[in-house]
Amino acid sequence: MAEVVVAIPTFRRVKGLERLLAALAALETKAKVQIVVADNDAERHEGFDLCRSLRVRGYRWRIDAVIVPERGIAQARNALMVRALATGAHFIAMLDDDEWPEPGWLDAFLAAQRATGGDALHGQVVRVFERTPAPWSLDCAGIAPFARATGAIDMIESSSNVLMTRACVAALAEPWFDPAFALTGGEDRDFFTRLKHDGATFAFAGEAIANAFVPASRLSLSWILKRAYRVGNSDMRVFLKYRPAPLARLREVAKILGAALCFAPILAIFSAFPNRRVQALCKLSRAAGKTAALFGRHYNEYAVIHGE
């Protein structure tokens, strides 16, 4: 029987966490499941209190919760890894507190892992919107659905809906998630970059479906462009962290310059197509984020909370 620990970081989204834990209690699986929650809010600790209450009321799975006082998503994820590895479970799954899985989610992940042999797998993410998004936003990062067929992939971009073997996580030196990315995001991209350098293989599990709630505050053009800026910024910081060769650096600079030089003509060409126009703006924002990272600047996206 497969043993799986589901690791969940949370910060002031107790409604989302409650929805996620209810969905995990309804899983259709024969696997042995344990749940670990890291509450990054030492002041209110609502997530910790919820877990304690569920445990008293006879929650289906063994549930462990810890308060992580040092603010930062990397710090919360590192606390989760300590607890998850201590369980001895064969696999570690990660879900965010604004996500919730479909009933067959876990068995679909395990089946895909057996089929692909991947050390780490990314699952499908279906967006559930608080209000209907504008058509021009539907191809933007954080808004677009995230799906593909089951099979090998080159890289996992985020820790939203993933399954990993215990062995590949245990092989990495601590801290697993770099605290330098505490409030900026990108700690997951850095983590999977480290796994890849360590020889881990990646796959996508097309049937392992998790839903992700998108609040209205994330449907504005302002948020979409800030997200593009942050992704560019954190991606470049990860790229620079591993001391790339001069030629690789030049290629990245060329991409940034290309995005800047092509922006005006592309914007003019697609002026009649709002979705294409926004895509051009996003590319420019990503390039701006990368440029800022080259000069040592970063953007703390996760200092602001979206959703409940």
Highlighted features:
308 residues, alpha/beta, 2 domains, 9-stranded mixed β-sheet, 9 helices
Could you write a compact summary of the structure shown?
The protein has 308 residues and is an alpha/beta fold. It has helices at residues 14-25, 46-56, 73-87, 105-116, 166-170, 187-197, 221-241, 246-269, 274-294; strands spanning 3-10, 32-39, 62-67, 91-94, 99-101, 120-129, 151-153, 162-165, 202-214.
Structure description:
With 308 residues, the chain is of the alpha/beta class. The protein folds into two domains: 3-218, Spore Coat Polysaccharide Biosynthesis Protein SpsA, Chain A (Alpha-Beta Complex), CATH 3.90.550; 221-303. Helix content is 43%, strand content 19%. The protein contains nine helices and nine strands. Strands 1, 2, 3, 4, 5, 6, 7, 8 and 9 form a nine-stranded mixed β-sheet that branches. The two termini are 35 Å apart.
